[in-house]
Every structure is written in C-alpha cells, then in structure tokens.
Amino acid sequence: MRSLTKIRMKIILTFLLITALIDQGQSWNSYGTDFITIFPENIAYYYPLDPVNTLSITALFPNTKVEVFVSDDLTYSDTPPAGKPVTVTLPLGTEQYLLGYTYQTVRVTSTGQIVVQSNSKKGNSVQTKVVQPVKNHGTVYTIPSLNYSQMLNNFYQSARNVSKRYSSFRLIIINGDYRTTNVTVVKQAKNETYTLYAYQAVQIQTDGTETAVCSNHRVAAMLTHPCVEMENCGCNMVLNQLYPNSMLDSSFIVPSIVNTSNFWLHVTSSVKNKVSGWDLELTTVNANSSVLLPLPSLQFESQFIRTSYPASLQLFAPGIVTEPISQYMFSACYLALVSSTDATALIIAETNYRDSVYIDGDLLLSTAWSAIADSVYSSVSVALDDVHVIWHPSTRIAVYVFERKTHVYGGPAIPLSENQDTFGCAIYPSKFEIVVTPQTWPESHQYCMLISDELFSPSNEAAHVEMVNILLNNSMTERLWISVRRSLLTLDWYRQKGNSSHNLYYTQWGTGEPGFAVDGMCVSVFLNPSMDFQWETARCCTLLKSICYTKAHYFPLYFPIPDDLPTVQNIQR
Fold first, then answer.
1. Taking 90 as the threshold, does the pLDDT of residue 159 lie above it?
2. Residue 344 near residue 401 (C-beta atoms within 8 A)
3. Domain covering 431-550: architecture
4. Model confidence over 11-40: pLDDT tens digits?
C-alpha cells in the first residue's frame, strides 16, 4: 500500500512539473470581464471596529457596465468612467470567517475589460490585493507549506504563544466557473477531495502537509491568515492569491520594502530544485517541499533570485506576504492604485533603458537608480500619491506598490499590458489585416470599417515602410487598395480615415502619377520592391485586395494622445 502511495505521488509530481513548464512565455495581464474573490477573516485590531471591505474597479473602455454580486445579491451596478477607479463598499457580513464550504463570495462582471483590487481594512490592519480575472485561474497549484510558528521564530528569535486556532494559515479555493468543479488537495498522507458548485468556495485550515491543488476546471487558490504578528505587538491580516503552475517561472526580482529590516523568502517546489541569489548560498529544495531562506541584504537592495526549475516564491516580512514578480511576467505598463499619503512605488527596469520610464505623461527623472546584482536590471523607489500609470515605451518593467511607513502593506501593481508603445499604455496594439478577397474601393473601405477601424494609408515614410514590411512578410504580389482618393467635388486628393477625411501631406507616387481624373479617382499600392512600392491611381470600381488597419487602444493617461499617430509603434519585440 505504501509503495502504491509513492507511485501515485511520483505521478502527481511529474504532472506538476510538466504543467509548470508548459505555457511559459504566454502574455500576462490582470484585466478581464469576470472576477471572483473572497474576503477572509480579519481579527487584527478587532477592538470594537467593523471591517471595511471594498473593491477598487477601473474600466479600461468607456460605456462599460459593471455589476458586483455578494452571495448572488446584486450590490452594485453602474457604468464607471474609463480610466478612473471607483470604490465599491461591500456590505457588513461580507467577511468570511468560518471554515468549510461557503457561498459568501464576491463576484464582479462587466461588459468590457476592467481591473479589480480588493481592500480589506480593520483599524490599522489593511491588506490590498490584485484580484485576478477568472481567465488567470488554473487547474494545478503548488501549495507552500507555511509554518507559522517557524516564521515567528525566524522573525523574533524566540517562540511566541500562538493559539491553536491561529497557529497555521488557511487555504481558500474558489470555483469561478458556472460548472460544478471537483478539487483534490494533495497531501503527504491522504488526499482530500471537495466538490464546489458554481461560484462556491471552501476554506481549509492547513496543517503543513498540503502540497498541491488539482481540479477539473479552473479555480482560484488563496492563502490567508487572520492575524500575522507585527514587530510592534500588533498584527495584520494577510492574503496571498497564488499563481497557477502554468504561470510559475525560474527568475524573479524580489523587492526591497521600505522601512522593513526582517525578510524571509519562502520557496516551494514540486520537483528537486536549486535556489541561488546574490546573498543566498546555493540551496537545494527537495521535491514536494518548502524552505524558508533569510535575505539579509534585501533591506538595502532588491534581489535577483533564480531557481533551476519553475517554483512558487513568497516574500515574508512581519505583517506582510507578497508574491515576487517573475521575469517573464514583466509588463509594459501598470496601474498603481494608492490609498494612503505615504505610498512608495518600487520600479524595476533594464539598466540600459531605465531612463525611459514614465509616470503618466511625465518622464521619471531620477538619479537614485540602483543596479540589482547579477542581473541586467536596476530599481528605484518613488513616492506616490493618488492613482498613476507607470509605463515604458520600449521594454517590459516590474512595479510594486507599498503603502505606509509603518504597518506596511501592498505588493505587485496591476499589470495592464505587455505591449510596448511610444505613445503610452497600449491595452490592444495596432495591427494590419490583409483582405485577400478582391473588392471595389468603396467596398474595401466599408469592409475595413466593419472588421477594423479603417482602410489603411501611410501618413509618413515610417508608416509606409512598416506597411511594406507587412506586405513582404505576407508574400503579397498583387496591388492593394489604400485609403487615398480624389474628392468628387474638387478633385483634390485626401486620406479617408473611417468616416472622416484628412488632408494628404505624405505621398509615394510612382512615375507619371497621379494621372488625370479620368484615369482613376482612387489609389492602390503597386507591389514591386524595385519600385519602392509606389502608389498608382486606379478606377474605384476595379476589384483589388486591400489592407485594413486597427488603431491601438490606450489606457486613458492624464495627457492627450494624438488621434492621428504617425506610424504603428507597437510591433512585438
């Protein structure tokens, strides 16, 4: 029987490793249209104050209707302005403190893309977390074995009396699917199985032997503790939403948190793994286990940590648990939601590109950048207030937000997009689409408006070159319509952009072009590389292929973005 258990565990561990290795490099952002979370027990500073549980919701597009349900009861319905966070205060009783099954979940749905942050407050105990959309949930999670007594001993070098009720963390599993989901909690001795109905959750008191969560449909997995002790004899409720194994990585930037001197790194792996870093001795983590590693120099500088295989990492300090941002999960822009007046953003960027970081519309001018040892990155701390977008036009960065100089809380900022763009935070990059069905010019114009924004025409030489590259990459050899034509009234040339016309300032006419009006009122691209893909007139009723263009959609920054961008800037690098 024992040998069968070992075989079963080996099969599970092999499956976990394969799951951790697949899908590496996929895009990561925190926006979506469906979210589900839970507000666990917060007993910190329990004297007699009611908990204040809120959601910060930001719509990425105008006319986005948002609804919030608590236990299937509609508690909020509105259309918030794009780019401006709104605070939704949840009713008393939202907090879930009982172990076992519960329908006390908080669900957010929307007609357009939004981002959501949860905020739990009770007196001086505050915890904010990015709520991941259901699309970021997973079916396999590696579960850290969090030994609370060991953490206290490491923080304070002496044992503290901890009641049995609060001697361990709690594992919360949430079914964000409308289908019934079967969940297995893999344990060292005997597995436990749970059946979760639509939008149901289960809260389990951990005993340190849980190693994984496996389910037949996507679920969210969270670790929480109602009162993690602080250095000043107080405590904070902590909440850590785990990343599924498909999102695990082997390279991390672990942030230095301001005014915090005691750090420990918790590393969990489903396979035998090696951990290394600047002030870490090479450490081996056995399969299906966890280690707690000191990071003495993290007080002064961020750390670059590597593992030989994908692993789960958590950073611990008194009163705070946060997940380091892995290298492949860096993004081009972040939303930094700030609720206090003494918040700090920790920005990490490649050293060669660190002078091109923007906060909203302003270039970040700082001489306080510090190189991160054994890496190509540097970091800088910036004081923040209010809400800001932090972005980079040409490379991906990482951003953390920590609030308060005492009772520190926070973690990774909200990643919005991996699309680098000169003009701001591009939620959706611009793109070309070649229509291979021959149509007349009016038909091509209408069809492009139907499937994209417009029939394309270059507004400058750079845009023309970019269009040419797209055509060459698609081996196009026939003429295509572009959105340049004559006015029927004046015979002047203009660019048709959607439903509006624009003066024609840039041209690439071929020899003898443009011809007389009788020769043609519309313009095509002649696909001959030796002639530099010049333009030629054609009769508008001629059947030709065409090239459509979809403009980039930008997160609303606090400065205007030109409506007529000179070229497509955000091709993936």
1. no
2. yes
3. Roll (3.10)
4. 344 444 434 333 344 567 899 999 999 999
